[in-house]
Amino acid sequence: MDWLFSNWLTVVPLIGSAVAWAWAAVDRALTLRREQAQREWARLGELLVILNNKDNKHGYWSQIAAVVEMHGLRTKRSTVLRLAKEARLFWSNGATPALLTELDLLIADLER
């Protein structure tokens, strides 16, 4: 302990740099998490545009691929579940059976 107090000019910068490094690492991790969340929200919006198929711009296979990709959005489970239920209700009469089956699988997967 004597050495620590007698060499405080050496120890303080080391502790300061360690604290600064730890702060930078935590800040970077939080920034990456926020960026990932923003990318997931953007992708969810793109998938919903494909699923909605306004003006018949997207085909049947694109819609099914969008539903399959929605399985992978794990961080937004509750939101994706609500949107999948609404899409299932919306498409209950006018969609192909394969799309309805994929929506049912997505809903069942997210409710577990």
Automatic annotation (TrEMBL):
Official protein name in the record: Uncharacterized protein
Segments traversing the membrane: 6-26
Q: Does the keyword Membrane apply?
A: yes
Provide the alphabetized UniProt keywords.
Membrane, Transmembrane, Transmembrane helix
